[in-house]
Amino acid sequence: MATRQFNIFVEGTDDHDLVLTLVKELRITTQHPVKRNTREGQRVTTYLQVVSSNDDILISSIGGWHKLGSDQAFPIQQAADSGGKTLIVFDADEAPAQRAQVLRQAVAAYEPAPAIFLLPGFEQAGELEDLLLQLVQPQHQAVMTCYDGYEWCLQGLLPNGQPYYNTPSKKRRLYDYVNVMPLQGDQWERHHRKGGQKIFENTAIWDLNALAIQPLRDFLDQYLP
Amino acid sequence: MLMESFEVENFRSLKHLKLEKLARVNLLVGKNNVGKTSVLEAIYSLSGIGSSNWYDNISQGRDMTSIDVNFRQLFYKVNEEGVIKLNATYKKQLTSPHYSAALEVLLKSTNHNSQLVSEDSEWEQNRLSQRALIDEVLGVSLQTNSMSSPAHYELAATEDKAMRQLKGISKGASDVLKNIRFSNSFRLLNSFVSSRPRIRNLGLVIEQLKISKLDSELVGVLKQVDDRIERIELGSNGQIYFNLGPNFTTLLSANLMGEGVQRLLVIVSVIINRAGGLVFIDEIDNGLHYSALRILWKGILYASHMHDVQIIATTHSAEALRHLTWVLDDEENASYRDDVAAYTLIRADDDTVRSYRHDYGQLEYALEHGIEVRN
After folding, report:
1. What domain range includes position A63?
2. What are the pLDDT digits (tens) for B273-298?
3. Among A18, A49, A50, B12, which is 20 to 30 Å from B146 by CA?
4. What is the ipTM of this complex?
């Protein structure tokens, strides 16, 4: 049987890196012998080959939910034609049901039944960062407490008696969480020099067996070869 | 009228393939042996099988000579029981109705007593008594939507010893072909540019361009590659020369120019000479340095648009496609973006070939995601 193609489309680089780490935990894979991996801004592409079946897995961040559609027609059709599957892992944002509907519509011309998972999971509204905040290793949860203190401190600063400073975003909080960790070698490079990567494979930082990520693990496990 | 879709069955290496939403300039990409050249030959056959040099033209690109003629090689898996089916539809225009053509070809045994005739009257006079040289004829059935029933005729090959060409249409074909209204509704005009075009065969094309006063357009495109080129001249032996201006005391033979100039010369002169027709270009980037690829694409986009020519080209290099994308990214070429489609061809488990179409907006993502060609 020929090689099947499986696509996992995600929104941004952190989504890509998290899903890549999970796929590598769930399946024995190797770097694809022919297809090229790229990382440019919000667009990151990784091709893996599953050792047991020689099937291909494409993990591609496309830069936002509104960019899903005809641009990805080629890999989506390839997956459908080869007996593979297209998986979509995007943020639920405010309304999970509506977002799922929009995403399904965006690829309907090429794949009538994509597998869709909306972050943070459990059919809740929210986004990747809501999930990641639940994956912080319990032993480092104190870092988040420090951050709470930082936020409260900022909120207490009222020049001219009025609130002036922005409260740091969840993205900022997560970036700083990784930023204060004593990373070494390649992990240090990837975080400090190559776009603030979150180093999800570092089990001292992240608990990828936390209950919060189980639905995503189950979803990937269900559809991947 | 542009071809809009094309479907082929049982031809050369193609068990089945369909191309849809063809554009003015179409680039077929894919790995070696996926059947790209066979697609060109199939489309060429649909419009050109009535031509006496049809078989020669599709054989040249594969470096086959007349000695190699074997009609069985036209059939998928050399299966003489098979039937080749070629179907095309054409874009509807204000002045012309929707048009379609279907051709079926099967192999038959030769009737050695049948006389050969041709649409070429002089050749016909010389060859009336000649018999087919090989033991095969092709049974051809052609149906267009302007015909009430299919036309049937037979093709046989014979050897023209002087020209070393094989040609011949069996009795009855001329009448059939004359009665089919190709001229206004079917792109009969076509040219096949092989991956190794022979510049020495180009003299007649250049001469025709000079007679039609179209040679200045050719020079205009070539100047983009080498701005020293002022004129193209023809020697009495059909040799092509470039006039490179006052700094050169003699004309320079085209054979001494770089491969990029030679390739562009062949392609653009064929396009200009085939106004309203189809031009097939096999391995479009063959022999070209990457720096010439953008110039080539600009020349092709401009010339095909100006002269209403539809291009179907092949490549197995991602570079050719990447440079086409870059040319289209340039705002000054934005008007050509809807003129272009690329098709990735992939052979499936059942040996059919699947085509995946990419328009301009999809090309960048497709190049990054799985167009498996030689880089």
Report:
1. 5-128+210-223
2. 887 788 888 888 876 777 778 888 98
3. B12
4. 0.77
For chain B, which residues make up each domain, given as ranges?
A: 3-189+274-368
Tokens of B66: 């007349």
State the smallest CA–CA distance between residue B365 and chain A in angstroms.
6
Q: Mean pLDDT for chain B?
A: 77
DSSP state of A213: G
What residues contact B177, with CB distance under 8 A and at least 6 apart? B50, B119, B151, B153, B169
Nearest to A77 among B356, B365, B375 (CB): B356
Which two three-digit tokens encode residue B102?
């279907």
For the beta carbon of residue B134, count every other beta carbon within 10 angstroms.
14
B370/A74 CB distance under 8 A: yes
B112 inside 8 A of chain A by CB = no
Q: Are B75 and B82 in contact (CB under 8 A)?
A: yes
pLDDT in tens, A142-198: 999 999 999 999 999 999 899 899 888 899 999 999 999 999 999 999 999 998 999
For the entire predicted model, the pTM comes to: 0.82
Q: What is the CATH number of domain B3-189+274-368?
A: 3.40.50
Contacts of B302 (CB under 8 A, 6+ apart): B221
- Residue A204 located in a structural domain: no
Determine, for residues A1 and B372 on separate chains, whether the beta-carbon distance falls below 8 Å: no
What is the C-alpha to C-alpha distance for residues B159 and B162, in angstroms, rounded to an integer?
A: 9
Taking a C-beta distance cutoff of 8 angstroms, is the pair B257, B248 a contact? no
| Residue B13 to residue A15: CA distance in whole angstroms | 43
Interchain proximity A2–B349, CB inside 8 Å: yes
Q: Does the distance separating the beta carbons of A38 and B365 come in below 8 Å?
A: no
Nearest to A71 among B365, B370, B372 (CB): B365
Cβ of B329 under 8 Å from any chain A Cβ? no
Name which of A8, A71, A76, A111 to mutate to probe chain B: the one with the most chain B Cβ atoms within 10 A of its Cβ: A71
